[in-house]
Amino acid sequence: xxxxxxxxxxxxxxxxxxxxxxxKDNKMTDKQYKGYKIEGVGKGKADYYVYTDLCKGxxxxxxxxxxxxxxxxxxxxxxxxxxxxxPAVAPDPEICIACGACAMTCPDSAIRIExxx
Length: 117
Known about the structure:
Blueprint: E1 7-12, E2 33-40, H1 41-44, E3 46-50, H2 60-64, H3 66-69, E4 75-81, E5 87-91, H4 101-105, E6 111-115
Antiparallel strand pairs: 1-2, 2-3, 3-6, 4-5
């Protein structure tokens, strides 16, 4: 599968960022974030979202990916750019197991994995 064909760009208010962590009143934020979605990761079990407006390109997600640690090229730098014009990341939908380690590691909440029903 050609993963470049599965990327869909979006601009949305992500549900996992509705409460701004630095606001004392915990009111909903209406900020829109740009990013892209890769459908069908984890053998079709999930969709992978990368919010390029939040990604700094630190690479922590790549370092913590269990599939990358196993020697496979699951999570790699993409052609998309992040917040500081550094490369964002993209998973290989055929290798990614949608475990969520990258999303939990990301210090900026730039990755979200949404399980399909």
